[in-house]
Amino acid sequence: MRLLHTSDWHLGRSFHRVGLLDAQAAYLDHLVATVRERDVDAVLVAGDVYDRAVPPLAAVELFDRALHRLADAGVQTVMISGNHDSARRLGVGAGLMGRAGIHLRTDPAGCATPVVLSDTHGDVAFYGLPYLEPALVRDELKAEMAGHEAVLAAAMRRVRTDLAGRAAGTRSVVLAHAFVAGGEPSDSERDITVGGVAAVPSGVFDGIDYVALGHLHGCQTVTERVRYSGSPLAYSFSEVDHRKTMWLIDLGPGGEIGAERLDCPVPRGLARIRGRLDELLDDPALVRHEESWVEATLTDPVRPPEPMAQLAGRFPHVLSLLFEPDRAPEDPLASYAQRLKGRSDQQIAEDFVAHVRGGAGPDERERTVLVGAFDDVRVDDGVKEVAR
Question: What residues does the Nuclease SbcCD subunit D C-terminal domain cover (predicted)?
């Protein structure tokens, strides 16, 4: 059976205030053409269909057209909700859509009810695990703890129980939206950390023939059977080195995996350039970036006049301007953002406590309180999105 694994469309999202609907439409054209040209049996969409819980109308219309075209192509589509989606909104009409071959899985309670497709070698059971916010689904899944690993493990126990009751030789595919250990994140994914821990071990999916993951925006292989497709478009400059692709997966009669990366259309290249303004304006090596979306980091000791306008004269698609003056590390004017770079919210908060106490950081009890406070904020955001 031939599968096309994609995820993280983020329909309705912009790139530094540049609208991407046309680029997203071009990607969906490419997706449908690939389905037809490569004789795909099932399309797997592993969450974050939309960029926010209440997407703009233009994004909803684009999604609607894509579903009609996939149904017209005669391909089965299995789709789950991600942490950016409103599961309830995305799941509206799921029963009716299923009759047209569009199978939406947005309710955690149905994670062990698969979409069963067949080929000449037998059945393939597709299990959709929508994004599982631990505090919201722990009771439903009867998880032992409120953490990502615990709720995913609980969901997978249900999956394995259902799979064990099926005919011998039934192959299995799981769609999930999570941060799995071994994956490389970028700046454009929303933080889903709970209890200070974001990643879950890939072993939680042991025994499944193929796991189609969403959430991380870089295409990557965690194990031979556990893969991220990544987003089809770049949504931050941290993705400058990403090759945007989809996975074409051939699932053999005994669960063998054949995998091929298929490139997605690139609307415009990305570039990160760094240096003093006069160097960036004159460097002949930067000619290749003159038509790219550009993030420029200026290192001038003193901010030059109208730097964005000057840069735009050479790089008309410059979108982001950062300042990191060349100064000694001990200089009190050294960039505050640079000092915070790569640090989590928890670490920043603990550093602040140490600063106001003259060097004495939080003890274990206080650290636990801080962890709980950050978790409560994330859960509150999740509850608000579910309620929308």
Answer: 267-355
